[in-house]
């Protein structure tokens, strides 16, 4: 059965492997929520499927302590009231572990077939998942559909491709024949088996439960591990639907569904530490705060831990002629999902003496104003603005905006926009605050949310130094540069290599520094404190299994 | 220059990559110390080169505190009295780090060329290295030549091949073009750069300084890192010669020789911890005691740590017809280098009721006796015996033999053989001690040296359980099985996968459980406490560099 699935999906898997090598544009799933792609009734079916979960207990037949729990609040005001079975940690760990030998035995191609089928089924549920992502994270619909659906599925497929290829580097068997001069040669038959490390824990985040979760989930599955999916208490539903799909496919393939279990907890009684430090947990994937990510790295000695944490993403603005292009591009960048992305820039470094624009000096304040005006104009039509901004994920972010305003001169204040569709919901535009480059303590840590600092530096060279200092200390996932000087571009490229951060240069069109495309862009590098791994490369998959050898 | 080297060695590198995939027999360097291969004068030249080091200060122009030190004792009685410059830790770390950007800039092919040239030069010095290995470790000449020379070079080449291929998985540049319906497509040019993690520390061991050291050294070099080579104080010379060769090639290629430095210390004033916990040390490779290996894993938070530690290798003897074959094979296995290998079996599990041999029961004692007699006969001719046994590396091992004898009935006592060539040197044959399987605390930890326990179990099934318990708890690198029952073979294969240990089945000929061949056998698995990594696979190299991206 699993090998039939492999044959059915082989072509797409081969394409995915090839795309991960060539790194041009490729996608396994369609990102447009179009009826022509997903079917005439897909959107309505998706809404109904989403609504069918509301106010109910989510059915999933797995080891449970008996009770139910669920604390999701709808950032758009839609009350979820979904209850999930509370996990029994020991029973769930034991059941997941017990499901592993059969998963190992179907082999790497069998596992690939099952993983590909799961992704295909998830893709078919893209609308249901999109509404679930939207009403747990606060993303606007289009973003929830793309980042939470097709793009997340692409990231999952990418992990399957890397994990599959990593296991295919060695044959299942080999004949070893060593000549011995006039004597008979020495001959051995050797067998190589990929064996998963153990139970893998995937800890989801509140803002991108699927996009940040699928890489670890699928990387662990393809390499032979069981997975406990532990969603953020505020964004459970998208991962609950995901786990149910996984389990359905496992059952159809004649496998034990407890290979993948859903472990839900609450903000008041978290269970992540219990799972993460369990002796049988051998892998942990985490996206979230630096504090907890560092705790996991320090305390899960028995496991391989992959973390994506906070960072201070930066933009360096040097001499550049197309300031309108900067403004247009950054307006969208800062506004998208109200800056609640791990890739949104926070620190914009601009020389205090201004920059050269078409041979004329443009002052610091004028550059800052151009950006502020761009953001203001871009968000001037409420109906359009809310479809970019989405909603604020939790109230802590609103408090943070107020804190940020106290740090310097407010260049652009945040405004509230009443959501035309969801009554009582207010969307929040980005705040832009001017800070002096010398006050590094004000901007050297991440203030997650729609908060932008324009920072006055002594020169672009000083901007580079301050970028390096802050990123080496507190990490970053993205760095942007605007410059017309090739020498300066080279200097920033070199500095980016030293700071261990991916660089985007002179983006003025339809590509944004906070977006990264599976198969072409590496998300994070693992080379600065913002993350200890990249999505997805060989290192993200190769530690999830070991090769055992038998020779005779 | 480095690209010229790449072209010169490209064919061999391609062959090595291919061999790592097909995993049949392949070797990059000749293992026989034959004049036809290495030249008529190679042996004499090697002796002279070795002797030229004795009683002198080893010349190497690198950051030093000014003093010299050196405590090597010749296990064969040849006094070394070599002094080495004492390192200045901070200055050495700074110099190594400063050498990295140029090493990155010559690119993956440039680094491959330089690494291949280094290996070629080391190969040309195989006799000099062999005598250095012999007179520091106590290995007999043939083993020192093979394991310390060609086989170590093969392990280094294997690491170069894996590291090179891992970096070649992604292109240097890619064009990303995303169609936008009727609008112009989005286009980006992307650049990918492999960047080493930082300074790498290679901590050598006293028994196999080159074989265990080269994988980490070359894996770190090929992936763009600087390397501090910290030999075991008792086995410095082979690595000192190695580092000098590396530095010569670097200088010839126009690179900074401080990319690789030699850091010598003494048993009384060790410096490993200082280097290992230095903020700029990002990789540590270690072979040695579990105690120190675990310390490194726990305390080098800033680094990726690869360890090979102690383990309790095992043999399971089930029903088998060719007991002479068992005896012949294990005699060599137990005797080679007086059991001072991380792959030598310690625990031989045999059912207390005996085994079936050609339809007749052979008692536990008779099986044990057959093995003991085999060892005795094999070592009965002193001239031949000493060429297998070599010398005891340090006095602690002799004390351990005496301890082991107190644990049970001595089936075969150790004997001392006067070395015919080296006056006053005594070689020691293996001791075989009978222990009851129930006394697991007696055999569950490693007693490094020529010590074998024959352990009486309730059945082969019980042997499997006790093997699993001891290996899951204390690790192992090798497991051997003798059985004529296919079902039992399958059961042990399954148990080996669970214990995370590589298995050798029914070895009665010229292949031995304690030998592992580069490009075909994985040395250790990383899946039990004996090691957290395997030599060499994708996981051994992929964490040593990160890919940084620049797009515009």
From TrEMBL, chains A, B:
<keyword id="KW-0520">NAD</keyword>
<feature type="domain" description="Aldehyde dehydrogenase">
    <location>
        <begin position="86"/>
        <end position="506"/>
    </location>
</feature>
<dbReference type="GO" id="GO:0009898">
    <property type="term" value="C:cytoplasmic side of plasma membrane"/>
</dbReference>
<dbReference type="InterPro" id="IPR016163">
    <property type="entry name" value="Ald_DH_C"/>
</dbReference>
<dbReference type="GO" id="GO:0003842">
    <property type="term" value="F:L-glutamate gamma-semialdehyde dehydrogenase activity"/>
</dbReference>
<dbReference type="GO" id="GO:0010133">
    <property type="term" value="P:L-proline catabolic process to L-glutamate"/>
</dbReference>
<dbReference type="InterPro" id="IPR011975">
    <property type="entry name" value="PaaN_2"/>
</dbReference>
<dbReference type="InterPro" id="IPR016162">
    <property type="entry name" value="Ald_DH_N"/>
</dbReference>
<dbReference type="InterPro" id="IPR016161">
    <property type="entry name" value="Ald_DH/histidinol_DH"/>
</dbReference>
<dbReference type="InterPro" id="IPR015590">
    <property type="entry name" value="Aldehyde_DH_dom"/>
</dbReference>
<dbReference type="InterPro" id="IPR050485">
    <property type="entry name" value="Proline_metab_enzyme"/>
</dbReference>
<keyword id="KW-0560">Oxidoreductase</keyword>
<protein>
    <submittedName>
        <fullName>Aldehyde dehydrogenase, PaaZ</fullName>
    </submittedName>
</protein>
<dbReference type="Pfam" id="PF00171">
    <property type="entry name" value="Aldedh"/>
</dbReference>
């Amino acid at each position: 059965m699993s090998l039939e699935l492999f044959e059915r999906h082989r072509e797409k898997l081969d394409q995915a492997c090839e795309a991960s090598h060539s790194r041009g544009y490729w996608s396994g799933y369609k990102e447009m929520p179009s009826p022509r792609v997903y079917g005439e009734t897909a959107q309505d079916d998706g809404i109904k499927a989403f609504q069918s979960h509301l106010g109910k207990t989510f059915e999933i037949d797995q080891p449970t302590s008996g009770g139910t729990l669920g604390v999701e609040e709808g950032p758009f005001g839609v009350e979820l009231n979904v209850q999930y079975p509370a996990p029994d940690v020991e029973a769930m760990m034991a059941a997941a572990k017990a499901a592993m030998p059969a998963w190992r035995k179907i082999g790497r191609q069998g596992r690939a077939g099952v993983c590909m089928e799961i992704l295909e089924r998830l893709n078919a549920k893209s609308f249901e998942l999109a509404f679930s992502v939207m009403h747990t994270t606060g993303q606007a619909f289009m973003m929830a559909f793309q980042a939470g659906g097709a793009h997340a599925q692409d990231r999952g497929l990418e992990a399957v491709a890397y994990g599959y290829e990593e296991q295919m580097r060695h044959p299942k068997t080999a004949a070893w024949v060593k000549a011995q001069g006039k004597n008979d040669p020495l001959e051995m038959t050797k067998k190589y088996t990929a064996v998963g490390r153990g139970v893998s824990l995937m800890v989801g985040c509140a803002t991108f439960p699927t996009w940040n979760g699928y890489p670890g989930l699928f990387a662990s599955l393809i390499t032979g591990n069981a997975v406990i999916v532990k969603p953020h208490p505020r964004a459970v539903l998208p991962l609950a639907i995901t786990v149910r799909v996984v389990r359905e496919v496992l059952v159809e393939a004649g496998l034990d569904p407890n290979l993948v279990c859903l472990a839900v907890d609450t903000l008041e009684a978290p269970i992540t530490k219990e799972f993460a430090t369990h002796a049988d947990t051998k892998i942990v994937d985490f996206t979230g705060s630096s504090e907890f990510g560092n705790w996991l790295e320090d305390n899960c000695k028995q496991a391989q831990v992959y973390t994506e944490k906070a960072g201070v993403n930066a933009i360096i603005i040097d001499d550049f002629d197309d300031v309108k292009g900067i403004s247009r591009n950054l307006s969208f960048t800062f506004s998208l999902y109200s800056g609640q992305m791990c890739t949104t820039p926070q620190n914009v470094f601009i020389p205090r003496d201004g920059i050269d624009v078409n041979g004329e000096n443009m002052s610091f304040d004028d550059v800052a104003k151009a950006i502020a005006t761009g953001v203001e104009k871009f968000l001037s039509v409420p109906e359009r603005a809310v479809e970019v901004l989405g909603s604020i994920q939790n109230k802590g972010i609103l408090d943070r905006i107020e804190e940020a305003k106290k740090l310097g001169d407010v260049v652009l204040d945040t405004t509230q926009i009443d959501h035309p569709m969801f009554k009582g919901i207010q969307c929040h535009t980005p705040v832009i605050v001017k800070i002096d480059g010398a006050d590094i303590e004000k901007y050297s840590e991440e203030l997650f949310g729609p908060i932008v600092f324009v920072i006055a530096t002594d020169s672009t060279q000083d901007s580079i130094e301050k970028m390096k200092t802050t990123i080496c200390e507190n990490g970053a996932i993205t760095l942007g540069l605007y410059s017309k000087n090739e020498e300066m571009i080279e200097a920033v490229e070199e500095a980016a290599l030293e700071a261990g951060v991916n660089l985007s240069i002179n983006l003025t069109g339809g590509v944004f520094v906070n977006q990264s495309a599976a198969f072409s862009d590496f998300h994070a590098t693992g080379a600065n404190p913002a993350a200890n791994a990249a999505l997805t490369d060989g290192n993200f998959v190769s530690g999830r299994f070991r090769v055992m050898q038998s020779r005779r």
